[in-house]
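re: ur question from yesterday

yeah so i grabbed the chain u mentioned. its 100 aa long if i counted rite. heres the sequnce exactly as i have it in my notes:
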Amino acid sequence: TMIEQFVKQLLKEKGLPPNLEPKVYDQLVKDLSERAVDLINRRQIDAMTDEQAKQFDDLLAAHPEDVQAAQEFIQKNVPNQDQVVAAALGEFRQLYLGNT
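ran it thru and got these structure tokens back, copy pasting raw so excuse formatting
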């Protein structure tokens, strides 16, 4: 996925030891990808109005497994979604790499 590619690039920039076990590396990619997605989701919710955020919470509570409905709601209610995602990834990069 795009997020995994982003995370792998971050790990490269971070300078991981080259002798890292593939299993450890894969787990690291998985964990960091989940954290990046969490941050993106939080920033998308931050971009909503209070009313939209409440509707989104209601949607998630009613259909927690319906990823498609959640994505459609975000696309409809976060007009600058691409910028929000890009800013969240930039923020995540900064948090992970520090000010290097």
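noticed a couple things. The chain has a mean pLDDT of 93. also Helices lie at 2-14, 22-46, 50-62, 67-77, 81-97.
anyway ttyl
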